[in-house]
Amino acid sequence: MNGAETLVKTLIAHGVKTTWGITGGVVIPLFDAMLAESDSIKNILTRHEQGAAHAAEGYARALGQPGVCIGTSGPGATNLVTGIMDAHMDSVPIIALGGQVATHLIGTDAFQETDMYGITMPIVKHSFVLRDSNKIASTIMKAFKIATEGRPGPVYIDMPVDVLKKEVTTISPKEVYIEGFQPTIIPNHRQIVRAAELILRAERPIFIAGGGVISANASNEFAELVTLLHIPVTTTLQGKGCFDERHPLALGVVGMHGKKIANFAQINADVIIAISVRFSDRITGNLASYAEHAKIIHIDIDPAEIGKNVKVDVPIVGDAKNTIIALIHTIKKLMKKNEKSAWLEKLVQFKGVCDKCIPTPDGKAIHPKQIIDVLNSLIKDEDIITTGVGQHQMFAMHFLKRSRPRTFISSGGSGTMGFGLPCAMGAKIAIPNKRVINIDGDGSFQMNIQELGTIKENNINVTSIIFNNSYLGMVRQWLEIFYGKRYAQVNLGKNIQFAKIAEAYNLNGEVIERVSELKEKLANAIKSDIATIVDVHIEEESNILPMLPPGGHLKQMFGTCIKGPDQWF
Question: Is CATH 3.40.190.10 what the domain over 3-165 is classified as, yes or no?
Answer without folding.
Answer: no
